[in-house]
Design goal:
Order of helices and strands: HHHHHHHHHHHHHHH
Distance between the termini: 35 Å
Structural class: mainly alpha
Strand content: under 5%
Largest sheet: none
Shape: elongated
Oligomer: single chain
Length: about 270
């Protein structure tokens, strides 16, 4: 399903203007390769590959980016999907109702992406990212899972639809993670750095979420105040918030740069 839009993007790429940062890098590399920049008899040095440069000079942004979006990985894959499977198995709900409820956490953010982007432009990527971790990762999952596991049987399907709609509205805020993550890397290693941090943060913490929740279900009951899906989502979100706060402190000390595109609003 992504082959056609992907091909269209590749073909239309030639029509896009390059950013000033990219043009400056190309100009600098051309000047560095010129004969005037080489000493007599000296051999030109091979440029470092983006992957090597990321791990050589940008390890801290990779760590910050990975852990800073770990909570979002849990938010995307644990409550809306794994959590619904737990509720379905517990109460033997119809699969059609559960599948229907799983649509809303992904449909609503897609519909609201434009407005979430406008909020990011007006308020700042980091502030919206922090708000998404607080609302989707800490404040919403705990009461929602407790409600779902204690609601009356006759109202259970409606409760799932309402709760998943609430999660979908809040998950629209997670749109901010893209700009927040992109800001951490300079333009010449941006694609590589973002790819590594994104796949580690979302893939590892989101992908392992159901496995961790299954392991925790033996001593953390799903009907308790803090169910395994809610606990895992809240824990990873707290880790992300601590890392984001730590990155602010490091930036103030001059240990890292948080913004390579737009310093304000952030």
């Amino acid at each position: 399903t992504s082959a056609i839009p992907g091909a269209a993007i590749i073909l239309s790429r030639r029509c896009l203007e390059e950013s000033p940062d990219f043009e400056e890098i190309v100009k600098a590399r051309i000047e560095a390769a010129g004969p005037a920049s080489l000493e007599a008899g000296a051999r030109p040095t091979e440029p470092m590959s983006p992957v090597c440069e990321v791990f050589a000079h940008h390890k801290l942004p990779v760590v910050v980016g990975t852990l800073g979006i770990a909570g979002v990985g849990a938010i995307w894959y644990v409550p809306p999907i794994y959590g619904m499977q737990v509720i379905q198995q517990k109460d033997s709900l119809p699969a059609s109702a559960v599948t229907m409820s799983e649509i809303f956490p992904y449909l609503l953010p897609a519909v609201l992406a434009l407005f979430a982007g406008m909020l990011v432009d007006a308020w700042g990527a980091c502030k919206v990212h922090v708000l998404s971790l607080l609302s989707c990762g800490i404040l919403a999952p705990v009461p929602l899972f407790y409600w779902w596991t204690h609601v009356d049987r006759d109202f259970e399907v409606k409760a799932l639809l309402i709760g998943q709609s609430i999660m979908g509205l809040l998950m629209a805020l997670t749109t901010a993670l893209y700009l927040w993550l992109v800001e951490l890397f300079p333009v010449h290693v941006r694609t590589t750095g973002v790819s590594i941090a994104y796949n580690l943060g979302i893939g590892v913490f989101g992908g392992l979420g159901p496995l961790v929740c299954d392991a925790a279900s033996s001593w953390l009951p799903s009907t308790g105040l803090m169910s395994p899906p809610a606990a895992y989502t809240a824990l990873t979100s707290v880790i992300s918030l601590v890392v984001v706060a730590g990155s602010w402190a490091l930036a103030r000390c001059g240990k890292m740069t948080l913004t390579h595109i737009r310093a304000t609003p952030y």
